[in-house]
Amino acid sequence: MEVISPQRQTQIDQVNESVGAKMLREAQLTGEALLSIPAAAVDTLQNHKLETVGKAALAGGLTAGLTLLSKSREAPVLTVAAVISGVSDLAANGTKIADAFVDNWHSDRNWKSNVDVMQNSVGRFAVDFAVSSIASAGSSKAMRSLTAPAENIPPFVSSEFPLIGGADFRTSIMSEGRSRKFDIHLPKGLDPSKPTDVLLAFDGVQINRKPAIPGLGKIADKHNFIAIVPHPDTNVSLPGFKLASWNSPGVGVFTEGKPIFGRKRQYDDAKFVDDILSHVDKQVRIGQVGLAGFSEGAGMAMHMAGILPEEKLLGVASLSGAVLGTEGPIRKGLTTVIVLGGNDKTLPIEGGSNGPTKWINWLGHNRVTQFSRPLALAPALAEHHGIKSPPTISESNGVIETVYGASDAAPGKVHQFVIKTGEHAWPGESEPTGGLNAQLMRWINGRPSNVDINERIADLIMNKRIQKSLEAPPAMQTAA
Question: How many CA atoms lie within 13 A of 279 on its CB side?
Fold first, then answer.
């Protein structure tokens, strides 16, 4: 009688079994591990108390440290917990888990021992992840209370805001049956008895953070206008990941008609903007409205420039705009400011894709780079406004300014600023509390230049200081 060695028997089993049978056994192994998490968790808490407590302390301390280093009040709780528990358990049990799966693929002869390995490893990770998450969340909550600002933004979101000049408030309103938020800054020189102009500023796509346009409060105080930053609604929501983008016909890279993420959303952000203005006007008399936007928000600003009543509009500014060619035409004769970064890698000013836009194209949103030609926007708008004279070009402090209509008597002008070293970021001051998510976006898109573009927007749009001649252009102001 021939005696077959275990190794030889394993080889015979492997030959005789189909791939489907092997995959089914692997799935059963995973299922056994998941079903036994409660029992494995009890064993972990009984036999590994000190190690579990140590991981919880490490998660809490790391969350607090990252909060302080990033000057943010919102630390990535789940990310910290996952790193601590995942990396530590992978280092301790990764080889065992891999060996169990490989052995189980070849044969079911060691089924029980493989199940034991998986149950202990998965249960251990589940407990570590849960405890690390709780510790990280508690630490984050404590840091929020310790680092909360003593003034300006109140600790709650209210539908009303006190008429306090020089203050910022986060306000909540109902729009089309949805609770929507916007930030508002009232200027120090506010006189509620007189109409006050408003600058509506739209930020780009948001990932795990609130919109923040740098320096608006300071410039609003100086030029005595109300600054409002609407919040786009969440479009994609996953554990630890929230993506918000603008939604209106012709605006937004994640709206209906786009593959992968595109879906019909039963609201229109143009109506949201109208609701904001109506709500604010009940407490503060609104004069005229200026528009500004960054990246996807630039498309929203240009979109609203064709929707709001002509007599209410002061002008519109597009910064690093992703103009898709589907937005409605803006009002003719409206002062327009185009700001571009010469070193923009996200939306190259000559067109095409780079950086994040490559990922967007890969997901099927190729309209972003197919239609967006940032340098072509200003001449196209000049033609739209009926400007016939050739542009006037000047350069100062690394900024090339091109003005279409500088010699015309009509009020509508198109001002294009190309910041030579500019990247895909709102020029000027950095976000005061950008946090880790904002820093990640800066790493992807680039950092802001030191050109104080807010002053130019205030001059050209909010104050209507039309530059008739650029023979001796003023030097661009730079942030200190």
Answer: 22
